[in-house]
Design goal:
Elements: H1 2-5, E1 12-16, E2 22-26, E3 34-38, H2 46-60, E4 65-70, H3 89-100, E5 104-108, E6 123-126, H4 129-136, E7 144-148, H5 154-163, E8 169-178, E9 181-188, E10 195-203, H6 207-218, E11 223-231, H7 237-243, E12 248-252, E13 266-269, H8 272-283
């Protein structure tokens, strides 16, 4: 991002005390400055705490405005009280970020759009669509279609299919008996003889994605690819994807992907340029939404 903006990276120290507690220190003068703190809040939870501590340090150092740039907003799937005695974790995280001293938030592809309403400060949501569309446009053919992994993802997938040239849309009907487990019930739409791209926002364990790919292939598709913004790739997801019938998996770098989670099927696209442009527009009080028109 700094390379795209042509500015140096701010000097901040993030270490540990002897007892394991996180220590942060801003090592340059930020009084009166417009500061952007970049931190995805993926596991482990220390990533969230680092973000909160950095925001608090900047506020106490008299920064004029603090924007939390959160490429991946963690706990976004816990956005409602769907059973007794459970928290609404994404709302709690929104409260913590605002209470720490952030003036606004810049994030990408929220799992649930209503999370924007959880904040009492401005939230700009970016979409990885421009980056992914540029990638897949090079590989389009007359038999190319796009699939939504579930009914909830239809608006997101429809918008993506439209940007690719009004491609046909297929929907995977599934039920989720418990967290991190889903069962494919039906494939809605014609996939026979097609090259199918399953488009989602998150790849976690990969189980749902692989089951959907198998269901599509059983219906006669000749190839299944997958794409998602946030590559959590929990547990043995990378290994399972490599051994699956999915030919290609395209993700972005909203979450750092260590070498042990990479494999030859996974391609990683950078969203640094997109975030950098949004940061520049926020700093200059220009429109961010016009990036997607």
């Amino acid at each position: 991002m700094c390379k795209h903006l042509g500015i140096p990276l701010g000097d901040a120290l993030v270490t540990r005390f002897a007892d394991g507690e996180i220590r942060v220190k801003i090592q340059e003068n930020v009084r009166g400055e417009d500061v952007f703190v970049v931190q995805s809040t993926h596991p482990p939870a220390e990533n969230i705490l680092e973000l909160l501590l950095l925001i608090d340090a900047l506020r106490r150092a008299s920064a004029d405005r603090i924007t939390a740039v959160i490429p991946y907003y963690g706990y976004a799937r816990q956005d409602k009280k769907d059973e007794p005695r459970v928290p609404i974790s994404s709302k709690l995280l929104a409260n913590l970020i605002a209470s720490a001293g952030a003036d606004r938030v810049l994030t990408m592809d929220l799992h649930a759009t209503q999370i924007q309403g959880f904040f009492d400060i401005p939230v700009d949501q970016l979409y990885s669509t421009p980056v992914l569309v540029d990638y897949f446009k090079k590989d389009l053919s007359d038999d190319f279609i796009v699939a939504s992994p579930d009914v909830g993802g239809v608006p997101r997938t429809r918008a993506f299919a439209k940007r690719l040239g009004n491609l046909p849309l297929v929907i995977i009907d599934k039920r989720r008996p418990e967290p991190n487990r889903a069962e494919v019930c039906n494939v809605i739409g014609d996939v026979e003889g097609k090259r199918c791209l399953i488009f989602d926002d998150i790849i976690d364990t990969g189980g749902t994605l692989i089951d959907a790919a198998r269901a599509i292939l059983e219906k006669g598709a000749k190839e299944v690819m997958a794409s998602a913004t946030h590559p959590l790739l929990s547990s043995k997801a990378s290994e399972r994807l490599f051994e699956s019938p999915i030919s290609k998996v395209v993700v972005t770098d909203t979450i750092p992907l260590p070498e042990e989670k990479r494999n030859p099927k996974i391609s990683i696209l950078s969203i640094a340029g997109l975030l950098a442009e949004a940061v520049k527009r926020i700093h200059n009080s220009e429109s961010v939404s016009s990036l997607f028109i």
